[in-house]
Design brief:
single chain, 269 residues, alpha/beta, Rossmann fold, 7-stranded parallel beta sheet, 10 helices, 7 strands
Length: 269
């Protein structure tokens, strides 16, 4: 039997072709779940929902009203919400001294306030449904454990989200609610397309992974899947499906620059 037969899931941040939200939605549907995909763009969401036989809804995580409306709509359309996964994020690459107040406000709205909206809406839903309970996941980042240069605002808000998840796990476990974070590392996706296209970038990261390859979106989706099954007696944890990166740590700016420089020199030979 499929691992999520009879279960429902909401996946927020699934409006870009091939991103982690879409990969996760397809996996959950293949495992028997009824899935509602959500995000800011109607056309790709409608297309994906039709493909997986699910539902879609527009939602900007930075809007308190829209996130709470998403939780209500999901309950109305699917009867209940067994899992809710937030895959949104913005990989701002910016030196601390050069980060503008506007960028900081955008980052806080997306990765701090938005996560709070998400947790508030779906904790309320899972607490009040019958029977109570469910699994909440927000994607964090390996960079909160394996620091990388020029990501202070990004890492700071991701760490804040990890703390909020721990608070939810502590406060609402009594209602059968599990809450965890899942931390990808440098993953090929629409958000990282420019980085992967730069010669030498992957070469700088690859030696940092004990298992010998970068993690994929599928690795992340599989971690989310397990956390949303009844098999996972886990809450308040930060899961690292990234092949052991945190053992060795991310490459620093000087290492990345050297790797890119070497790759560019080879191309010019």
């Amino acid at each position: 039997m499929a691992r999520l037969t009879g279960k429902t899931a909401v996946i927020l941040g699934a409006a870009s072709e091939g991103n982690m939200g879409q990969v996760t939605a397809r996996l959950f549907a293949s495992e028997g779940a009824t899935v509602m995909v959500a995000g800011r763009h109607e056309e790709p969401l409608a297309k994906l929902a039709k493909e997986i036989g699910g539902h879609h809804a527009l939602c900007d995580i930075t809007s308190h009203a829209q996130v709470h409306a998403l939780a209500k709509t999901a309950t109305e359309k699917m009867g209940r919400v067994d899992s809710a996964i937030n895959t949104t994020g913005w990989g701002l690459l910016s030196n601390l001294l050069e980060t503008s107040e506007e960028e900081l406000d955008q980052m806080a709205a997306l990765q701090f306030k938005g996560v709070h909206h998400f947790l508030q809406a779906f904790v309320g839903t899972m607490k009040d449904q019958d029977p109570q309970g469910g699994s909440l996941i927000t994607l964090s980042s390996a960079t909160t454990k394996a620091l990388i240069n020029n990501h202070a605002a990004y890492i700071g808000t991701k760490r804040a989200a990890e703390a909020m998840i721990e608070c939810v796990a502590n406060d609402f476990g009594q209602f059968g609610i599990k809450a965890n974070t899942v931390s990808p590392a440098f993953t090929e996706s629409p958000m990282t397309a420019a980085g992967f296209a730069t010669p030498g970038i992957v070469d700088a990261f690859l030696p940092k992974y004990p298992l010998g390859r970068l993690n994929t979106s599928e690795d992340v989706a599989n971690a989310c899947l397990w956390l949303c099954t009844d098999e996972a007696f886990v809450t308040g944890q930060n899961i690292q499906p990234n092949g052991g990166l945190t053992i060795r740590g991310n490459p620093q700016a000087s290492e990345i620059e050297a790797s890119v420089g070497a790759a560019m020199a080879k191309l010019q030979d």
